[in-house]
Amino acid sequence: MNDRGPSPERDYDALLDESLAYAVAEGDIVNFKLLFVPASPFREDSPEDASTPKYDYLFPDNEAEPRFQAALRLVKTPETAAFVREQLGRKGPPRLPWQLVLALGDNAARLGKYTSAAQAYELLRIRRRLQDMTLDKADARLTQGDIAAAVRGYRIALGLQYDYGAFPEPLPAVPDYHERAPGLHTVYPVTTEQVLAMREDNALCGIALQFLLPFGEFSGRFEQVAPETLLSFTAALIRALDQDWQEFVITFKKVLELTTAHEALFSKLNAFSAEALEVLSEELVNTELLSELRRISGLLAGVHGESHEWWYYIKAMAYHHPGAALFVSRQRLSAKEEIVIPRVRQDSRLAQELGLLV
């Protein structure tokens, strides 16, 4: 980091400008708000010294970076500089300079820090309007067939979502894919046709989008989208929300090959109800095979160690790979034991675009 020098006069103004500019340039709403709280080293009555090493994180390593320089110029405008110092000197909660908050939000959005952007825009009471504008532009791009731009717009809009029911105060909303993923599989699929992944692409895309974009602001936006466009958009969105999707694909295919060999056994097990399996005297799964089958859920979800309930594996999988929850199914081994197995429809274009077909 650049040496800010030992002189206490170096200065309060220079240090304040640099720290503000750094927070704005990096889209860091947490550090930005920290500079105004009662414990801030820049409050007039604060005993803290911003030039000490413990506050190094408030300053840039590279002051020549263009984004930082642009923010620094904005911070140094006379109107903004005077307003900031007035707020730091007043008693009680300060007002934040809107010009800096807006620039911070824009930088956060460009950097993919959507939670920070949402908080900045919410402070300015423009978050919902910006979210709606972003969705409208994304829809226009989708209509034009520009899938990449449409997905980018929807990702930004999703990041700008807010939860006004959060406690103790409204906060950016989190999709919580891992918490909701087991809900896709609450009903045990007795037949292959009841397996989520075995549905036709159009129906599966609809379920996928409801799961991946779970808020009311997104509902009804895909009703008029052509099936082929919807399919491409869904596949691209699944990939965009999971930077490690390709790693999951490799694991999925390996485990799929392992489970395919046991399809006849699975069908036989599913022919009995859980109650029937409990009283059945015939041993359907021998001990050696049972041990092999129990490994499947852990391999698929990347979970090692002891066995868990089926929903645990789906939660673990969806935490890292949200789209994975669409291509698995519960499978009984006995009346009281279930595993999670990969499922894919061989004629599915969605599965093909996601690289899941063997």
Please provide a written account of the structure.
This protein has helices at residues 12-25, 29-34, 66-75, 78-89, 98-110, 114-123, 127-143, 147-159, 177-180, 201-212, 227-240, 245-260, 263-270, 274-279, 287-301, 310-320, 349-353; strands at 162-163, 171-172, 328-332, 338-342. With 358 residues, it is mainly alpha-helical.
The spatial strand order of the largest sheet comes to 1-2
* Count of extended strands: 4
List unreliable stretches of 5+ residues: 5-9
Strand proportion, as a percent range, falls in: under 5%
Q: What's the order of the H and E elements?
A: HHHHHHHHEEHHHHHHHHEEH
Alpha carbon gyration radius: 27 Å
The tally of helices reads 17
Mean pLDDT: 92
**Shape field:** elongated
Helical content (DSSP H or I, runs of 4+): 40-55%
End-to-end Cα distance, whole Å, is 50 Å
The largest sheet, given as strand count, sense and whether it forms a barrel, is:
2 strands, antiparallel
Query: What structural category arises from helix and sheet content?
Result: mainly alpha
Q: What is the total domain count?
A: 3
